[in-house]
Design a protein that fits this description.
Elements: H1 3-32, E1 38-51, E2 56-61, E3 68-69, E4 74-79, H2 81-106, H3 110-142, H4 148-177, H5 181-206, E5 209-211, E6 216-221, E7 228-229, E8 234-251, E9 263-268, E10 273-284, E11 304-311, E12 323-327
Antiparallel strand pairs: 1-8, 1-12, 2-4, 2-7, 3-6, 4-5, 6-8, 8-11, 9-10, 10-11
Length: 328
């Protein structure tokens, strides 16, 4: 092969290689900008945490993780012996206060009233004798037989017996009329306060049996049977499956079509199907770490927003944690 032919073949190879590079570059340029941008989110649900207002020991768990519960279903039973003791003490105090209030309202017993009456009559008799004795001493004093001191002693005894009559009559009147209005009111208030304490303890006792206030799926149970739980400590979590939404972190230059009230379509890889969602919440993340810095190339910083949207046509099997894909 001549040198001229070799030179010609080399030129053709270079031209062919250059043509391939140019074609690949053109194809890459035309297709590179057409790659769809993807925004990924996930399904979330509201969580209801079950907790107690009293400390106690887990006596029995009536449900397990994955169970679907309804309003009123018993979830857990706690053992709280201290509260049981408080309930007994409060009940005893209430009964005593109620008895005192009844006694104040009803007054003294018949035997007590009769006894007070007899003491009053006895004091009257004594006063009558003291009056007669004083009259005799006064007559003898007038005749000059007795001294003034004897007359004064008889008079003092007479006045003392009069005072005893008034005191005995007062005790009889008090026994007959019962307690004063103020005393009856005080006794009644004490009885009401004691009843209030009983009601408080009974309300706390209800906390030993935890029932569901929502309908949903038991997602987590934290303590085991026999373990202690404190006041307000979460015992279990219930996922409210009817309150489901999708959450997306979207860069602000990708927010087109995601305004409040807008409906968009997302792909659910778990089921290889699409679901429509309606935007109800948009809020900026508020952290510099989620910004995309672009000032170095003459543009601007891009902030990330949290977007929440509810399914307009939810289907069975959609669960929290499943991925949602938005193709831009």
């Amino acid at each position: 092969m001549s040198a001229k032919t070799q030179h010609h073949n080399i030129i053709l190879a270079i031209i062919g290689f250059a043509s391939v590079v140019i074609v690949v570059a053109i194809i890459g340029f035309l297709t590179l900008g057409k790659t769809p941008e993807i925004v990924q989110g996930e399904i979330e649900v509201s969580e209801y945490r079950v907790s107690s207002k009293i400390p106690g020991r887990i006596q029995e768990l009536r449900v397990k993780e994955g169970d679907y519960v309804h309003v009123g279903d018993t979830l857990v039973i706690l053992e709280a012996p201290e509260v049981n003791a408080q309930e007994k003490a409060a009940s005893a105090t209430q009964q005593a206060a109620s008895a005192m209030s009844d006694m104040a309202d009803n007054g003294a017993r018949k035997e007590q009233i009769q006894g007070a009456y007899q003491l009053w009559q006895q004091a009257l008799v004594g006063c009558d004798i003291a009056k007669k004795s004083y009259d005799r001493v006064q007559n003898l004093f007038n005749e000059g037989v007795l001294s003034a001191q004897k007359r004064d002693e008889a008079f003092a005894a007479y006045k003392a017996s009069e005072a005893q009559v008034k005191a005995a009559q007062s005790q009889y009147d008090m026994a007959k009329n019962g307690a004063r209005i103020e005393e009856r009111k005080a006794a009644a208030e004490q009885a009401r306060a004691a009843q209030g304490a009983v009601d408080v303890v009974k309300s706390l006792l209800k906390e030993t049996v935890q029932v569901s206030n929502v309908e949903g799926e038991v997602s987590s149970i934290y303590p085991k049977e026999g373990e202690l739980v404190g006041i307000g400590s979460p015992i279990m979590s219930i996922s409210i499956m009817k309150d489901m939404w999708g959450t997306f972190n979207v860069r602000e230059d990708q927010l087109k079509g995601l305004k409040l009230g807008n409906i968009f379509t997302a792909f659910v890889p778990a089921f290889n199907k699409e679901v429509k969602l309606k935007v109800y919440y948009i809020k900026d993340q508020g952290s510099f770490a989620v910004w995309k810095a672009t000032k170095s190339n003459g543009q601007y910083d891009l902030k990330t927003f949290e977007v929440k949207a509810r399914p307009t046509n939810p289907f069975d099997g959609l669960r929290p944690g499943m991925s949602l894909i938005i193709r831009k």
